[in-house]
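Incident review: delayed structure delivery

Summary: a single-chain prediction request sat in the queue longer than the usual turnaround. Root cause was a stuck worker, restarted by the on-call engineer. No data loss occurred. The affected request and its eventual output are reproduced below so the record is complete for anyone auditing the incident later.

Affected input:
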Amino acid sequence: MRCLRSHDIIGAKKNNIATIGVTYGYGSREELETHKADLIADFPDEIATLLPLS
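Output delivered after worker restart:
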């Protein structure tokens, strides 16, 4: 699992896609910060507050 998340972030960055990493489930905040996730959520309900309103 560790490689898949980092590859997802790297692939998104190469295609100018913003990333949201989550610390619940597998992985850690440190891993997400290392691979430079644009946003990080610790709980599922935080995702809605991180996304811009359209």
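Verification: Residues 2 and 31 are 8 Å apart (CA to CA).
Action items: add queue-age alerting; document worker restart procedure.
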